[in-house]
Amino acid sequence: MTTPIRAVLIEDVVPYAEALRNYIGISGSGVECHGVFTTAEDALRAIRKDPPDVAVVDINLPGMSGIELVARLRESCPGVLCLILTTYEDGAPIFDALKAGASGYILKRAPAREIVDAIIQVHQGGSPMSPQIARRVVNFFHHQPPAEDPNVLSEREREVLQLLAEGSMYKEIAGKLCVSLDTVRTHVRKIYEKLHVHSRTGAVLKYFGKGR
C-alpha cells in the first residue's frame, strides 16, 4: 500500500484554504492534508515539530512572507518540499521564491485538481509550474548566459541541468536523453558537487545567474 503524501497548507484566505483542504480529502489522490495555517510563524513552529512531506505556501502572508518561510524551512527542515501557491505572476516573486528553495510555483486560479497534481509532482522530484510561470522561467534561461564557467559542467551535465530548469522529472530526463534513471541521478549528484549546491533550484539558479 502506498504511503500517503503528507501536506500542509499555509494560506491566510481561510475559505480558499478550507475549500482546497476539502478537495484534497475527497480527491482520492494519495495526498492528505495535515494542517492549515494562516501565518508563516504558526506554520514554522508546527512544521519543525512534525514535518510534512510538502508545504503549500502562499507568498502574501501577514507578518513573515511565504518566501521567507520557504527560506527558513530550507534551513531548519530541509526534507520538507515547498510548493508556492499564489496570485503573483511577476518575475521578481517567481525567482525570489525559487531562490529561497521552492520546488514549484502554481497560480491560485489553477483548478484544485492541478494543485493536487502539483503536490504529487513535487513529492516525486518534479518542479511543477503553471504554464504562464514556466514560460517566464524558460524564457529567462534561454536569454541568460551561464554565470558559471561552462567548462565546470560536462556537455551531458549541462543538458541535464537545462531539463531540470524546464521542470522535467528524473524519469522524463532519462527518457529524453535515452539513459537510465540511475545515470540521471549520478549526473545530478555531480552537478550539485561541482556547483556547491544541495538542490535542483539551487543548481539552476546558480548556473544561470540568479544565485549570485
What does this 3D model show about the protein?
The protein is of the alpha/beta class and 212 residues long. It is 52% helix and 13% strand. The N and C termini lie far apart (44 Å). The model has no long low-confidence stretch (mean pLDDT 85).
Any chance you could write out the topology, listing elements then pairs?
Layout: E1 5-10, H1 14-27, E2 31-37, H2 40-49, E3 54-57, H3 66-76, E4 81-86, H4 91-100, E5 104-107, H5 112-123, H6 131-142, H7 155-165, H8 170-177, H9 181-195, H10 200-207
Parallel strand pairs: 1-2, 1-3, 3-4, 4-5
Helix pairs in contact: 2-3, 3-4, 7-9, 7-10, 8-9, 9-10
Short description:
The chain has 212 residues and is an alpha/beta fold.
Domain count, please report it: 2
* N to C succession of SSEs: EHEHEHEHEHHHHHH
Mean pLDDT: 85
Class per helix and strand makeup: alpha/beta
Tell the overall outline. globular
Low-confidence runs: none
Tally the helices: what do you get?
10
Strand order of the largest sheet: 2-1-3-4-5
User: What is the fold-level CATH name, i.e. the topology of the largest domain?
Assistant: Rossmann fold
Largest sheet: 5 strands, parallel
- Determine the strand fraction and express it as a percent band: 5-15%
CATH superfamily membership of the largest domain: Response regulator
Give the C-level CATH assignment of the largest domain.
Alpha Beta
Spatial extent as radius of gyration: 17 Å
Helical fraction? 40-55%
